[in-house]
Amino acid sequence: MTSPRRDRRSEILDAALRCFVERGIAATTIADIRERAGATTGSVYHVFPSKDAIVGALYVDRLRSYQSDLLARASRHRTARAFIRGITLHYLEWVEAEPDAARFLFDARRTEAIAAVAAEIAEANRESFAAMRRSIDHFAAKGDLQDLPMDIFIAVVIGPAAAYARHWLEKESRTEMHRARALLADLAWASVQTKNERNEENEP
């Protein structure tokens, strides 16, 4: 059973997310969050000592939620192509399903509050990247996937999708999301597949 403290924490984070998206992180106050959450001032401060603590906790919470779902999906793929396309597809499907969380993660990176949770973010990324690295190594060993450094892999597979997502969230994209997902997933795969895989796909 979820504890009352956990329920209150989740309620505060959910309320904070709505406030941050509507008002902006800088303009939002503890009072705004308290009112949106239907909480007392004391109950908010009992869980979080400051607005910066809420920003940091929300960032880690939404990041880990995204990563957990991504890894659960990635673990089900049995081919390199499905694995790579699945990463890109999941990212854009998540952005479409959780636009407020996506906007917040983009915006919060530039705030001082994130510095306080840098170690937690680094740990979340280490765990996520380690799991993906195992899959990359598996497919690379079979000759199906280029053995790229992790930072290059993320830049190639997620980078273009993240750039599109920013434009989509700002309603500046010309390509509809469903078409962008398919195009970017195919481009990600084309960027990291091996020559052997490329030749096999081109065979009649």
TrEMBL record:
Domain of life: Bacteria
DNA-binding residues: 29-48
Coiled coil: none
Record key words, sorted: DNA-binding
Alphabetical list of PROSITE patterns matching this protein: HTH_TETR_2
InterPro entries: Homeodomain-like_sf, HTH-type_TetR-like_transc_reg, HTH_TetR, Tet_transcr_reg_TetR-rel_C_sf
Span of domain HTH tetR-type: 6-66
Keyword DNA-binding attributed: yes
Keyword DNA-binding: yes
Pfam families membership: TetR_N
PANTHER family: HTH-TYPE TRANSCRIPTIONAL REGULATOR RUTR, TRANSCRIPTIONAL REGULATORY PROTEIN
Protein name: TetR/AcrR family transcriptional regulator
UniProt organism field: Pendulispora albinea
